[in-house]
Every structure is written in C-alpha cells, then in structure tokens.
Amino acid sequence: MALSVLLVILAVIGAPLFAVIAGSAMLGYYREGIDLMAIAIEVLGIASMPFLSAIPLFTFAGYLLSESNAPRRLVRLTGALLGWMPGGLALVSLAACAFFTAFTGASGVTIIALGAILYPALRQDGYPDNFNLGLVTTSGSLGLLFAPSLPLILYGIVAEVSIDDLFRAGVLPGLLMLAMLSGWSLWVNRANRKPLASFSMKEVGGALWESKWELPLPVVVLGGIYSGYFAVSEAAAITALYVLIVEVLILREISFGKLPEVMRESMLLVGGILIILGVSLASTNYMIDAGVPQKLLSIVTELVSSPASFLALLLVFLLVLGAILDIFSAIVLVVPLILPIASQYGINEVHLGIVFLAAMQLGYLTPPVGLNLFIASYRFEKPIMTVYAATFPFLLILMLSVLIITYWSDLSLLLL
Amino acid sequence: MPDRPRALLGRLERWGTAAENAALVLLLGGLMLLAVGQIIMRIFFSAGFVWVDELLKLMVLWIALIASIAASRSGRHLRIDVLSHFMPKRLARLPMFIAEGFAAGICGLLAWQSFRFVQLSHEFGDTVLVDTPAWVAHSIVPIAFGLMSYRFLLSMLHEALQLIRAMLVASPQQ
Amino acid sequence: QTTQIKIATLAPENSQWMSEFRAGAKEIRERTEGRVQLKFYSGGVQGNESKVLRKIQIGQLHGGTFAPTDFQKRFPDLNIYGLPFVFKTADEVAYVRGFMDEKLASGFDKLGFDTFGFASGGFAIVMSNTPVSSYDDLKGKKVWLPEGDLISYEAMKALQLSPVALPMTDVLTGLQTGLIDIVAIPPVVALALQWHTKVKFVTQLPVLYAMGFMAISDRALAKLSADDRQVVDDVLTRIYATVDDASAADSENALDALLNVGLENVEPRDGEFEKIRAIMRENNRDMAERGMFSTELLDEMQQHLRDYREKNGEAAGMSSDSSTEESGTASIGSR
Lengths: 416, 174, 335
Ligand code: NA
Ligand code: NA
Description:
By secondary structure, chain A is mainly alpha-helical.
C-alpha cells in the first residue's frame, strides 16, 4: 500500500507515466511471485496487436499535412463554403479544426497549425478576444470522434472492437458536438452577424482547385475501409505514402532535408503512446491475475444498479480521469478495466467507446492538466488562467453534448 | 567541467540523435512501402507473403521502442505535467531530480528483465518470421530500455547540477 | 499446502468448454483435499497462444489449451491430422487416430509438457459470402489464412489462391468489410465466435480436421505428489475423452444450427474437389520432403487410411496416395 502511494506521488511530481505504470506492474508481479521477466513478454505484445501500424502511419501523415500549406488551403476552402453564413468565420474555424483534428490525431497539432491562422483572422473580423481564445483552444480537440482519429483507433485496438464500427459510430455524436458549439458561437456573436464574405462560385472553385491534391484523402481513407479494399492499417499506409508523395514530391512544400525531422517529431508522440501501451499490457495482465476487474465489479454493483446510474458514475469517473490524464494513457490503462463492468450493465462496447472518448475530450480543457490549455497558453502567449476562463463556456457546452451522447445511445449506434 | 568529456558527450549526443533519426526514417519508410506493396500484390497479383504481417508488426515494435529512446532524449514522454506549469522552475528541480532518477531506475530494471527474457528465448531457440531467431528481433527491448535508463540518468544529473548551482547562487545573498 | 496450476484458454467464459473445466477443477480440488487448485483464465485474457507459451516458459502460467498449429515450430508432426484434404469423414479420422494418437502424444515428453488426449473440433468446412461449389469459385477470392499457419499457406500457394492472413480476432471484421470472402472453420467454432452472422453460404466440404488439446508443463506437475498427479491426469483425460466422443454429434448440431439461422447450403460440384484433393496430396508429400514434418508419419497415416478405405469397400484408386499417375497429371497451372 505504502509503495502504491509512493508511485502515485511519483506520477504527480512528474515521473514519466510509462515508468510509473511499469513500476506498479513489476511491484504487482513481485507480490504475486511472478518472475519479473513477465513484463518483457507483455511489452513484446506490442508486436502481436492487430492494426497497430495504423498509429505511426496516420500520425506521420497528420504531421506532414500540418507542416505543409494544407492548413491554409483547408481554411480557404471552408471559408469559401461556409463563410457566407452569419458568424461565418466562427463556423469555418469549428469545421476546419474538426476536419484537421480527425487527421492529426488530437495531439495538439491543430492549435499550432490552424490556430495560428484562425486566431488573428477572428480578431480582425471583430470577434471578442476571449471568445476567439476559447474557440481556438476548444477546437484543438474537436473532431476526435471522426475517422481516422488516433484515439478512435487506439480504443478499437485496446478494446478489440471493430474499428470501422467505431468510425461509423463517431459520426453523429461528433456532428452533435460541432452543431452545439456552432449554435453557441452564433448566439454569442448575435450582435456581430456579418458574414465573412458573400458566397462566390469562383472562390469555391479556386479553393477546390488549390486543394485538389488533399481532397481525395477522405475518400481514400473512408472509401477504402468501407468498400473492404483495405483494413484500417492498410488505409493508413496508403494515406501516409500518398501524403508523402503529394507534399514532398508534387507540391514540394516540405523539403527532403526536413523530412527526417518531421518523421522524428511525429514518432516522438507515437513512441510516447506505444510505450505506455506496452507497459499497460503488463499492468492489466497483473490486475487480471489478481482478480481486480471482479473486485471492481462487485464494488460498482453495490454502488449502482441500473445502466443509467452506471453511466452517470462512469461520466464522473472519466471527468476526474480526464482532469489529470491524457486521452491516450487513459485509454490503454482504464478501458480494459471498465469494459467487462460495462458489459455487465449491457452497455454496447462501441457506444462505450464513443462515451469514453467524448468524455475524455473534455479532459483537454479541464484543469489542472489539459493539453489544449497548455498549448494555447504557450502558442498565443496568454496566462494559463486567462485561457481557462476563456474556454469555460465552451467546456460547459461540450459537457452538455457529452451527456446527450451518453444517454442517447442510438446516436452512436444508428449508423452501425 | 573539463573540456574533453564534455566534447565527447556532445559528440555522443549528436551521433545518437542521427542514429535514431536514421532508424526511424528507415523503419517508417519501410513500413509504408511494405504495407502498400502487400496491398498491390494482393489486389493486382492475387498473391502475398505469409511473413509480411509479422514483419510489419515487428517493425511497429521497433518504431515504438526507438521512438521511446528519442522521446526520452527530447523529454517528450507523457507525464502528469502539473509541476512545470504551476511551480517556479527553481522549486520544481528537486521533484524533477527524483522523477528522473526513478525513471532511470525503472528503465534499468526493465532492461535487465528483458535481457533475461531474451536470453531465455535464445536458449529455447524461439523463432520469428518462419526461421529467424527470435532473440534478434526482440533484442531491441533491452537495448532500448538500457539507452532510456542512460538518458534519464543524464537528465537526473542535469537536474542535480542545476539544483546545486541554484543553492550556491542563493546562499551568499542570505 | 496448495499448489495452484494456472491454465489459459481462448474458450469464452460461458462456453461448454469452460463449464467442463470448472467442474473438473472442482473435482480435482475435492479429490486432492484442496492440495491441487486449477485456475483457469478464459476468453484469451492471457493473450494469444504464442504469448501463453512464453508465459509458461517463465513460469507465470503452467498450462494452456492449444491447437496443433500453435506448436508448429516446436512439434511440426503434430499437424499431421490437420493436413488439408486428407480425410473425408469423421470415421476415417477416428480409425487412424486409434493407431496414432499415442505416438503423437508421446512427442510432448521431450518438450516438457504433459497432455491429456486430443479433442476433435470436427472438420473445417467452407463458409463464404459467394457460393463455393467448385475450384473456380475459390479463384481470385480473398481466402482467410490463419496468421502464422504455414501449412495452410503452402496449400493455398499450391492451389494459387489469394490468402489474406489475419489473426482469429480480426476475422469477424474482415468478413463484414469484405476484406476476406471465404473462411474454412469447424461449425462449432463458427457458432462460438459468431462468424456465421457474417457469411451467407456454407459448403460441406471437409477441408481439414481440427483438434485441440491441453498442455501443462512438467515442471508444474512435478511439484505434485504421485497420487495427486494421477488425479489431475485422470480428470483431465476424462474431460478430453468425453468431449472427443461427443464431437461428431456436436459438429452435426452446430451445422444444423447454421443452416437453421438461414445460411444457404451449397453442394460441391461432382468430382470438382477431387482435383484439389490430388494437388493437395502432392503438396502434402512435397512439404514432408522439404522437412516441414515427418515423411514416415505421413506414410503411416496414409497407410492406415488406405486400410480403412479398403475395408470399407471404397475404390482403391480414389484413395491411393502413392498413385503418382493421378497426382502427377493434376496441376492447377495447366487448367
Ligand atoms: Na488482440
Ligand atoms: Na485535463
């Protein structure tokens, strides 16, 4: 017990999470009298997980896109398509960020790549500064529920749920979040309802033509997977190779010399996620050996009896979890434990995944640890407290949407 | 600090980064080409190799571990990162020193345990990819954790030096 | 003093297998007065078979349930009954196994494992999303290859089929998305894993004979007293024998269930699959000669099979495996 508390303290003072998890797994093995070599077997288990290659490949593709001029083209295109509406630029920001985040895996890249373009543009268009900061910060993780986002894939791998089902299930809940935030943005700026520009077929055509190389991407990814031509991991390989050829060879926006740096940068994130996945396989394995899921289940069944109250308990738990843990660590650590419990309450595992990710998306915006808050504070040179305050109304809207997503399971399951 | 060891460390650092980058470029590029090649073979030639999937998975393992070494060099491992955002840098030194030391110790233990396992699988003659000895493919695990332990040790020493320096600077003022 | 024996299995928690195992564990605990406790990990929570074998190596687990392909690298001869298109009926296998089971089981001694008999899983038959009644119906379709199954891979190569290697866990998704069109699997397994919900057609073609077994490491069993070890052996052997005896009926029931839920039965076209059989005979021989498994064992199995078929009045030519004339002329390439 004392040692477990020590591990928690080590985590809080900033020890790398993978080391803390590995430490707790080895402690568990030691107590059970299992040879510590067992942890090597679990880490090697990374090499027996299906579809895992999708993670490095999609991440690399996303980083390539964000290093190129694709973000600028995306903003121009969404501007041409949506800018004529009142409050146009806010809607453009939300849509462009959601689309971009789906491809870049909600790693904070969106704020850096798109925020830099949108934040000054919003200010210039007369939107209040606090609103702009909140909008851009929130948008950094919007689109998490849209294919092929990294958290969706990771949940599918860890929970052994069909990734295409998750891709389908995320569509409506993701759109709901987008719609609610759009509605809020329009309401806040009801005084400033001037459109960005009037609709112009010529501008749409120009923007489309400029984005002609990136436009096939969604078709390749989604079409390939749904038509059964490729598995998710294969779609990832094709996407990565395609983006590489387009941005480096055809558009030449990224030089050969810069390529190793982009690869390294993207793999830093991947290494961080996969090493946690590896050691979490060990800690999960120990917990199964020690019967932790059963004990957890008996505690939970004592607390709540109906699926609805279980979901409420789950949401509270995920909010607390999201306040301190990043989404990737949360998925690999917690999903194996709550999955059997949720199935006891008859919760569909695809719906569970959407609820889990939607709730963890709030974690990007909740103190003390919120990736988007930190990145926005750093990128726009604002005190962290200012960012918290600016983001708070958006956080409330998102919470409301998470409640709806949680209790209206058809929203997730309708498209399956 | 004398110049020679510092220069040597600096050179090691540059070589290490270059080696990591080269490995990541080769592995990621290989992963892409091999996976796409397999799709082309299947769709256009109705053929495939039985070992490709296993090789792809082993490459992901290598990417994960080499990228982890890189992440430990660049201080990019995921952490519950409260301190650095809320504490003055100077006050955060001691906890950081402890955290890095702990990570170095755990990685050392992981390196040792995975070395024992690789040795055992060498004795058993385990194979991967039809008939390649498994220890060849799996040796990356002890190597990676060993290097990560070294990285965390260095950054622990760095924190210690900074801590001592901060104390030396602070004390005469009192 | 309690000795715990930890055994991992892919069998789902609420399966027939698990209830047999639990009853067996209870009986063993009672008969050894609590000295021996079998602890089962169901549903694959300890990972796939190669992971389980590694965990047995380091003593984290003590045993597991396996299929012959899991031992492909250490004990290739174990796959001998599972060679594709060798047997046609359950009776044929039963006859041959009567002679050869013991020899196969003894092969585990030098691997440091104890086994308790083999349980038949029935024949893997063809299930598909396009009707398969002839060899041409297989060509150009994406056929599932169990990941790491070298023998099936060689077989598909010889037949010029397009294998798609996937682990068991991904087959359901593969069928749903059209990543694979055709699988060969025993009806019992298809039902247990719900694969029947993603296919439309079933062709009752005995592709290969499937079986499973439990292996427990000698090191773990050596800790028990001779009497206790006997109890473990008796109970587990009885369980496997019971399941093996019931397997023919189980397969029949599972097949009925598949047809009852609306899978369409496709009749294999006359003689069509004899060509495949001939190519497979040649290929099986070829694999043995390349050292993938023992030639003597293959000869012995085929001798028993010939004996059985002669006794039961089948035309000798049909079953003759040494008939080079027949196998020599059959080549897919020349079609
Ligand atoms: Na798995
Ligand atoms: Na948070």
